[in-house]
Batch of 2 targets.
Target 1
Amino acid sequence: MVGLLQSGFSLGLLAFFGKVSYSNYLYHTLVGYSLFEWIGRQQTVASNLIAVAAVVVVSTWVAYLSYILVELPSGRFCKVHEPRFLLRFSKLRRR
């Protein structure tokens, strides 16, 4: 795996999950348990697997929305305003 990654190998799906991984970490429990509560216990193994797949898809979708609507704008905000904050911080340290 390390050799593939060092050689420049890239898989779009892995890159996508890498981008939304933190949001997925934050939301998967809330979304997952809420959906499982709403869906209810299924009678067959196949139905339970379908429910799990649906929860993974919805949880990933929520994570993606969070990435687009929260993480990217806040990152842009920080890049724009960081010099001003650093300047203020350096003035405070000199006092």
Target 2
Amino acid sequence: MKLGYARVSSRWYQAELQIAALKSEGCEKVWTDRTDEGLLNTSNMENFLAEIGPGVTVIATRLAAVARSVPDLLHFLEKVTEKGASFRSLAEPWCDTRTNSVSQMLQTLRGLVEFEVELGALASGATTRTDVVGISIGRPSKLSEPERLKAISLLRIGKSAAEVGRLLGVSRSTISRLKAAALK
């Protein structure tokens, strides 16, 4: 049995066009969802899944009708395959779980979800890209770590930035920046 899915909630998801396309594919029944959330709404998903079973092929005109993100798509496909059904998208022929490579496709989608999570962590600043790659931004430091510690010690005993700079062979402004950073 072929079961069509049409989301008709927003202006760009026109019900008539989707239903006509699904009927022309041989769908005996077309399930229409009229909410803005689509199958993301838990009750809608449960109602839809109650109608499918082993041997059913769920057909949608496009993936955007059933999911709004890769994680949503993965969740939907896993639920459909758990019920023993298959899924096919008319606009995206690569998304067809009737083939033997269902587990490979789901594994690829899981990898994409993990990739999106990592990109989100990088974009949010949870980790900086330089931390991941192991490089530092900007010019190399003029002072080594032991020289920095020596400069801070000299500043603490009352030496001026100009005196410490002359002693270590760097400018007064380099020592002033080090002093400001050390006082934070």
